[in-house]
Design brief:
Structural class: alpha/beta
Order of helices and strands: EHEHEEHEH
Distance between the termini: 14 Å
Number of helices: 4
Largest sheet: 5 strands, parallel
Length: 119
């Protein structure tokens, strides 16, 4: 999953649904892009889920304007970021996205294509 800003909303619905069912072993990875650390919506809930399900939910952030102590990625969604934090392209891999059109059209789609993800 790749989310930008308020695009986290449908992703969180999916995340909540998976973890509502303990028998569901779906593995989820999320890159969540924002402008600043203060812009990260629902951060506490996302981090609680990641802590509770460390082998099933993988959470990563990127910021356009990070502070000096920021420990995650900086800048726009890149091929390297996708390679490092999302599952590899495969028949059973699905990448879903929600965010501002420029993020989807100019960062996500071109880098997913470059890495060989199916459209």
């Amino acid at each position: 999953m790749i989310a930008g800003g308020t695009g986290i909303t449908p992703m969180l619905q999916l995340i909540r649904e998976v973890f509502k069912h303990p028998e569901d072993k779906t593995e989820l990875s999320l890159i969540f892009a924002n402008q600043t650390e203060e812009d990260i919506l629902l951060r506490e809930e996302l981090e609680e889920i990641a802590t509770a399900h460390p082998t099933q939910f993988h959470l990563h952030y990127t910021l356009d304007r990070p502070g000096d102590s920021w420990q995650y990625s900086k800048g726009f969604i890149s091929a390297d970021m996708i390679s490092e934090h999302l599952p590899k392209p495969a028949d059973d891999t699905l990448i879903i996205m929600c965010g501002p059109p420029p993020m989807i059209n100019f960062a996500c789609n071109p880098n997913l294509d470059k890495l060989g993800y199916a459209a």
